[in-house]
Amino acid sequence: MADQIQSLQEQVLKARAERQTLNIVGGGTKSFMGRTPDNDAATLSLAEHTGVVEYHPVELVLTVRAGTTLSEIEAVLAEEGQCLHFEPPRLGENGEGATIGGTLACNLSGPARPWSGSVRDQVLGLRLLNGQGEHLRFGGQVMKNVAGYDVSRLQAGAMGTLGVMTEISLKVMPKPATTATLVQEMPLDSAIDYMNRRAGEPKPLTGACWFDGKVYLRLAGARSAVEATAEQWEGEVFEGGDALWQQIRDLQHEFFAGDDPFWRFSVKSSAIMPSLDGPWLVDWAGAQRWYRGQATLRDLEPLALEAGGQVSLFRGGDRTGEVMLSQPEALKAIQRRIKQSFDPDGLFNPGRLYSWL
Amino acid sequence: MTSESRSSKQQLADEFRSFIDPQFVISDEETLKPYECDGLAMYREMPMLVVLPETVEQVQRVMRICHEKGVPVVARGAGTGLCAGAMPHKEGVVLSLAKFNRILDIDPVARTARLQPGVRNLAISEEAAQYGLYYGPDPSSQIACTIGGNVAENSGGVHCLKYGLTVHNLLKVEVITVEGERVTVGSDGLDACGMDLLALLTGSEGLLGVVTEVTVKLLPTPEVARVIMAGFDSIEKAGDAVGAVISHGIIPGGLEMMDGHAIIAADDFCQAGYPRDAKALLLCEVDGTEEEVDEHIAEAEAVFRKLSATSIRTSTSEEERALLWKGRKSAFPAVGRISPDYYCMDGTIPRRHLARVLLEMEKMSDEFGLRVANVFHAGDGNLHPLILFDANVPGEFEKAEAFGSRILELCVEVGGCITGEHGVGVEKIRQMAVQFDDRELAQFHSVKVAFDPKGILNPGKGVPTLKFCQEYRSIEHKQHKHEQAGAEHG
To answer: FAD-binding PCMH-type domain: which residues (chain A) (predicted)?
Structure first.
C-alpha cells in the first residue's frame, strides 16, 4: 500500500516544464487497446500507487488508489461477501495485472453489464491530476451527488487523455447467493430475439450470450428465485457455467485466441446481425458483439450505425489509423476543447484515443 | 427598462416571430409572469422573452440567433425543479420545450423508449406498462416533471440504490449546441466510444447544451413488491437497521426513513397507520420474483426484530403497500399543513454519520428557532430536511436559508455533498465553494467554456465565479470565528 501522489505530481510538473508527453500506465495489461502509443512519450507509471484508502461495506462504497489491481480489490471485497458486480475483465498473466484505473479509463465491463451497469455507472467520484499538475477531487463517496459537472464519469473511455486518475470511489454490491446457467442450441438470429425477450422478463437474469450455435443464460440472486426460474425456462442446466462466464469476462475464452483483429460492436441489443461472415461471440443479450476477422473500420462503421451503435477495433489490426468510430465535426471540436481544458499542453496519452486528440 | 433594451427586445421578438408561431413568442408582462420561477418559488426573475418552439429546426435557429447576439438562454421543461435552475435571466430568453411532448417510439423487445424532452416522467412508465416495462427513476414530481429536465438535473427518486439515477438509465441524447448544431451523444448500444460526454451532459443543468431528444432504457416491471414498515425508538437503531439489511446482502428497491416530526405530520395527513410514538420509521420495500421477495422479506423482518424494532408491519396486498407508502409520498404536503411554508434541503451523507447529522440539526433547529422535519432516502444517504418557516414573518426565509446553508456545510464536513438530486442552480451556488476548491471550480469553468465559450447558456447557475467564492468563504470564515469567540465567552 503506497501513496505516490507527490511523486506523480512532480513527474507531471516536470513533464510540463520540459514539454515531455506522457504515457499513463497502470498494470500495462491494456497496451493493445487504443491507437499505437506515442513513441516519444515517457512512461508515467501508477503501478506503485496502490491500496485501499477507505472501505465501508455497509455503505457499499470503496475508495482505492488507481494503481490497485482488480484481483487485490476483489480479495478485499470477498471478505465481506461483496464484489465488483460489473465484472471487469481481469487481463494480464493469471488475471493479475489489470488495475481499476485502467479499467475505468478503457470503460471495460463484463457479462453482467446490461443488468449491473458498467464500471462508469459505479463510479461515485475520483481524484485526478490535470495537465497543470493540480490534484483535483470530483464527485464524492456517496451514491447521489449532482454538484458540479460529472467529471468523474467523463473519464470513462477517455483512455487517460484528460488526466491522471489517482483515486477512485466505487459503488460495490453483495455477491449473489446462487448462480445457475442454462444452455440450449439455437441459431444466432433466433438467439438475439430470444435473449432480448428473456431480458424483458422480471427474472434474475445476469448474463446472456451466444457462441458456436448455443445460447447461454445466467441466473443469479436469491436461491429460491434462481431455482424457480431455472425450472420455468427451457434449456439444460450447464455445469460449466461459472467457468464459461469467467472466460468470457476475462477474454480468455477460446474465441479470443489467435492473432486475427478483434472488433467490438456495441449496438442495439435487438438489432439484426450485420451481414458479415466470420466467427461471432454475442454477449450482453445482443448489445455487445465480438467479431474476429480482417476488415477496415471504414467498412464496418456503416454496419454498426445501421445496428444503432458503434464499432471499434478492440485488439490487433492496424492501430496507426483510427480505431474508434469517427466523430462528427461539432463533437470533435467540443472534445478538443475539453482536452484543452484539462490538459492544455497535450501531455497525456496524445493520439491514443483519436489521431486528432 | 431603457429604451435601447426595449427596442432590442422588440427586435428579437420580431425575429423569432418570423419563424415561430407568433403566439408562442411571449413578450407581454402578464403572460411572461408564470415563467418567473421554477419549483423553488422564493427565487424569481422576469425574463425578457419566452419562446415555445415546435420543431428542432426552430430550436436551432433560436440558439444561432442568441449565440450571435450574446443573449442568455434558459432552457425549461415543466418548471418543477427545486434549485432555481430554470429561473429566467432578466436579459435573456426562456426556451420552453413544452411543445416537445411526444413519445416517439417504445421498443418492447430492446426495452427502450425514444422521447421528446417535454414528455412527463410518469407518462413513460404509463405507456410502457402495456409491455410489462417501466422507467426506473421516479422523482417525487414525476407526475409533472419532464424527461428533459430529468436529464438536466440527473434526477433520482426513491429507487436509486437499486435502479440508479437518470445517468444510469440513459442511452443517448440529441443535443443542440450553443452554436445551433444538432448532435447525438451516446447510441442505442450500452457503451459508446471515447470520453463519456453523455455522463458529462447529464446533470449539467442546462449549462452545456439544449436536449431535444432522449432515449432511455426500460426495465421489466417486478413480479411483486412488498414493503415492511418498521418503527424504532431511536434514529441510531433505525440507521443500524438500514446497514444490517444491506450487510445481509439485500438491496431493497426502496429504503426510506422518516423522523418523529415527519411521522406525525404524515400520519395526521393521511392516516397511514404509522407508529406515532416512534422516533424513526423505516419503509423497506423489496421487489423481484415472488420467491425472492418472500425470502428477502423474511430475512429483513428478522433483522429488524433483532435490532429491537418497536413495531413491524409488512404489506400483504397492493392496497396495503400503497397505504404504507402514502404517508411517505405525501410527507411534503403533510409538513406543508403544519407550517405556512417549508424549505426542502437535499444534502447527501455517508449513512454512518446519520445520527450525528440529525443530532446537530436538532441543535441548529433550537439555535435558529425553526422546526425541522426529516425524510431521508436512507438507502443512498440522501437527506431531505424540511425547514418550517413563515414567509410572512419578515426575515424568516433568510433565517431558513441560513439554517439550510449550515446543514449543507455539515453534509460536506462529514464527507457528503450539497446536493443529491435537486441540483445547484442559483440556490446552492454559494455552497459550491464549500464542496470544491478554486482549482476545481476553475476546471468546471473551463469545461463550460469548451461547450459555451460566450457563456450564454443558463448564466449565473451551477458553478460560482471564483471572485464570488472568495467573498463567500471570507464572510463564512469571519462568521465562524465570531461564533467561536462567542461560544468561548459564553
So the answer is: 1-175
Angle at A349 between CA A345 and CA A355, to 5 degrees: 90
Q: Which residues of A19-55 are buried (b: 16+ CB within 10 A; e: fewer)?
A: ebbbbbbbbbbbeebbbebeeebeebbbeebbbebeb
**What pLDDT does B467 receive?**
76
Chain A residues whose beta carbon lies within 8 Å of the beta carbon of residue B249: 81, 174-175, 177
In the predicted model, what is the mean pLDDT of chain A? 96
Which structural domains are found in chain B, ordered by start? 3-96 (3.30.43.10), 111-125+132-220 (3.30.465.10), 224-332 (3.30.70.2190), 339-413 (3.30.70.2740), 432-489 (no CATH)
CB B341 within 8 A of CB B271: no
Check: CB of residue B119 under 8 Å from CB of residue B147: yes
DSSP B303-346: HHHHTT-SEEEE--SHHHHHHHHHHHHTHHHHHHHHSSEEEE--
In this complex, how many residue pairs, one in chain A and one in chain B, have their CB atoms less than 8 Å apart? 286
DSSP A277-342: -S-EEEEGGGTEEEEES---HHHHHHHHHHTTSEEEEEESS--SS--S----HHHHHHHHHHHHHH
At B478 the pLDDT is 55
Residue B33 three-state SS: helix
Grid coordinates in use for B1? 427598462
B189/A154 touch (CB, cutoff 8 Å), yes or no = no
Position A278 scores a pLDDT of 85
The beta strands (E) that lie in A131-287 are given as: 135-139, 164-171, 173-174, 178-185, 205-211, 214-221, 236-237, 262-266, 280-283
Query: In this prediction, what percent of chain B has a pLDDT beyond 70?
Result: 96
Give CA angle at B110 (A285, A310), nearest 5°: 75
Q: Give CA–CA dist B23/A235, Å, rounded.
A: 61
Flag whether residue A338 sits within 8 Å of chain B, measured between CB atoms: yes
| DSSP characters over B1-16 | --HHHHHHHHHHHHHH
Cell representation of residue B230: 418498521
Q: Contact B382/A271, CB-based, under 8 Å?
A: no
Q: Which of residues 147-176 of A touch B (CB under 8 A)?
A: 147-151, 153-158, 161-162, 173-175
> How sure is the predictor about B466, in pLDDT bands with cuts at 50, 70 and 90?
confident
pLDDT of residue B485: 46
H or E stretch including B224? strand B224-232
Residue B95, classed as helix, strand or coil, is strand
**Among partner residues B196, B444, B451, which is closest to A156 by beta-carbon distance?**
B196
Q: How far is B392 from chain A (nearest CA, A)?
A: 31
| Contact yes or no for B152/B139 (Cβ under 8 A) | no
Please report which confidence band the pLDDT of residue A245 belongs to, taking 50, 70 and 90 as the band edges: very high
Residue pointed to by grid coordinates 449513512: B351
Domains of chain A: 5-174 (3.30.465.10), 178-249 (3.30.70)
ipTM of the complex in this document: 0.98
DSSP A272: P
Q: Classify residue A314 by burial, with Cβ atoms within 10 Å: 0-12, 13-18, 19+.
A: buried
Q: What are phi and psi of A30, to 5 degrees?
A: -115, 25
Helix (H) and strand (E) counts in chain B: 17, 18
C-alpha distance from B121 to closest chain A C-alpha (Å): 19
What b-and-e string marks burial along A217-249, b requiring 16 or more CB atoms within 10 Å of the CB?
A: bbbbbbebbbebbbeeeebeebeebeebbbebb
Tally Cβ neighbours within 10 Å of residue A158. Answer: 27
Judged against a pLDDT cut of 80, whether residue B290 lies above it is answered with: yes
Residues A335, B194 contacting (CB under 8 angstroms)? yes
Q: What is the residue whose three cell numbers read 454496419?
A: A303
Interhelix angle B260-270/B318-329, nearest 10 degrees: 120
